[in-house]
Request: fold
Amino acid sequence: MGNTLSIRQSVSWRCMESSEGARARVFVALENVRSAHNVGSVFRTADAAGAAGVFLVGVTPAPVDRFGRPQPEIAKTALGAEHIMPWVRYESAAAFLSEPV
Reply:
């Protein structure tokens, strides 16, 4: 599998609910993107584009590691967007795709 960037539209998603009502929202999903700098750049771009959130799938690094430490490579390129954009991590694409929308 190669790196994947996908856009997913949703009317409601339980972990990223907002007060916007039933308006369709756009989410960004990153699957197995290994470069933390690229992940930070996508966070910044998703924030600028008005995306509702970011899904991190597989080996894609998260803004905070499993020990709760911030990832400096992501912070360097995200320029604060990693603190603003809601994000959820999934261990596999199957787990991500089986989540009800």
About this structure: Residues 4-98 form one domain. The chain has one domain: 4-98. The longest strand covers residues 4-10.
